[in-house]
Structure prediction request, 700 residues.
Amino acid sequence: VKNYPGLKVALVGATGMVGREFLPLLEKTKLPIGSFYPFSSGTRRQTILFRGKKLPAPGVDFKTLASCELVFFASADEVSKKFAPRLARAGVWVIDDSSAFRLDRNVPIVIPEVNGDRIRPSHRILAGPNCTITGLAVAGALLHRKIGVKEVRLASYQAVSGAGKDALLEFFSQLGAVSASLKKDFSIAPALPKLASRALPRQIALNVIPQVGGFDREGNCGEENKVASELRKIWAAPGLKISSTTVRVPVVRGHSLAVWLTLSKAKPLSAIRAILNRTPGVSVKGGMDYPTPLDCAGKGGVSVGRLRLGATSKEICLWIVSDNLLKGAALNSLQTAEYLWRRGWLKARP
Amino acid sequence: VKNYPGLKVALVGATGMVGREFLPLLEKTKLPIGSFYPFSSGTRRQTILFRGKKLPAPGVDFKTLASCELVFFASADEVSKKFAPRLARAGVWVIDDSSAFRLDRNVPIVIPEVNGDRIRPSHRILAGPNCTITGLAVAGALLHRKIGVKEVRLASYQAVSGAGKDALLEFFSQLGAVSASLKKDFSIAPALPKLASRALPRQIALNVIPQVGGFDREGNCGEENKVASELRKIWAAPGLKISSTTVRVPVVRGHSLAVWLTLSKAKPLSAIRAILNRTPGVSVKGGMDYPTPLDCAGKGGVSVGRLRLGATSKEICLWIVSDNLLKGAALNSLQTAEYLWRRGWLKARP
Prediction:
């Protein structure tokens, strides 16, 4: 859709896992998109569907990006690193889903309902958070502001879509092989097929993998380090103590977190629940109900359940689920753009 | 196999998930089993294979049980409750895999390499631990003895076989449906089929379920309460602070635990690792390697990896995997029987 009055918007990585989630959101947004330029970060010729029309998604063309008011990046770090700084210098708003700029001092990690007030009109590059920490960053934001969070421990149950297309297709192939094997041996003690893995470090079908990203010297993997440094930055809590074990599970979409929070003050659960109920972007399940990734797949917000007291004083437990491709990526980026628009900082050029 | 010199041994629940794991172990054990009586806890006529022979596994016959020196229970709590006390009064050793007697003051929860010394020759009923806590009870035992464990936090990744036959067959049916659906729609954004669940509280295929057992008033589920009370009893640590979130994952066998331990004293990781390496029943993975449930399925011991420092002082993180049907059930029971035999407390009657 091109050359109508309104914003000129580009999406880099339009044919990827996150990119394709953007398209229906961009069709529904109240942002006045006049022209839309989808780009593929790869070189293969691809097309996408937008507002009922087939659009080509060619390789990135910097001139077109620079002519836009807003560019979303939903591709690899390298692509963002290559183009975003030049676009920023040209005055283009860049909302980046990669991790390329998240720890840059001059770039805020933005979750609009949590820290939209961190954006300055002089900013041009805004980073979206890692999809794993998004759920806690949203769910714990008001608790942190009202009471204070001192310590965080979390174990993740991360969907395969978070590892990208190749990992997801590998998972589906493995599921096919497992199912074929079960057809021959449908018993309570079937042979468990051992299947090749290339995109993920181990077989994911019928398994869980306690590794997301590479390991550092201390034995933490990349995702665990992102979770810690990004949460500290998003909450502006440099002294926050945080320890995590990040685990890939055989789920298509929806990241779940088992979380322990140690608060600055002891509070009754009813007070905690009241704060959670008022937290923007969060829906709280009570009683016997709780969210699962399958319930939350394709849905926008962050869902919290299993609120309980922990084993030590001032400590609570939470179970948090959010769709890693939506609130963890595409939706959050779009909400950031809508925030810029509402503030009057994102405008169509004359 | 009947009427040979040696021990008379019965197995109640021989056709169940755990029961069928007992059979190859009983074939290989050094216990001098003269006669073996498998029973089914159900009423359906079933047979089992033992030492190459097809044996009937009829419904439980108390007289036959009472004529044995040793009876293993691998069935529901009610079955153990009905028969075990009468067998104990008749002098029969009962090794019970159900949770019926675990919190009974007169019954130890036995993991031989951890607390075999808790068994008195006057005991007759010995309980095996819950399969979820077994991994940590074994892996942390020497750390607790040498340094002291003050606080435990754990998130579990529990295999479907732990929920029994019906749950496992439900999982396999769901996998078949998922695979059929993927055949029609093999893309990076396939429809995620929503499938009926009866044995488990939610669909398990392509999902995780943060509920194992029913909920109490505080919001803890049954498994979380078992984990806490059983670990305190096994380690003889009544003041241990423990908080857990137990989660079912789409894995066939092998329970995994993401664990945080707060110790009584700060120790360097090298010292912790040295203690883990000396802990009976534990194999420690180092460097970039870690266990997954698929690696550990069908294997006997407890496997530990991802040893790291936690976020607060005196705190460490561990990833622990063990086969819930073996060390978490059948194997541990057999090891308990072998321990009794070595101590000379389990003897063939004249």
Observations:
- Chain A has a mean pLDDT of 95.
- Residues 57 and 183 of chain A are 41 Å apart (CA to CA).
- Chain A touches chain B through 68 residues (CB under 8 Å).
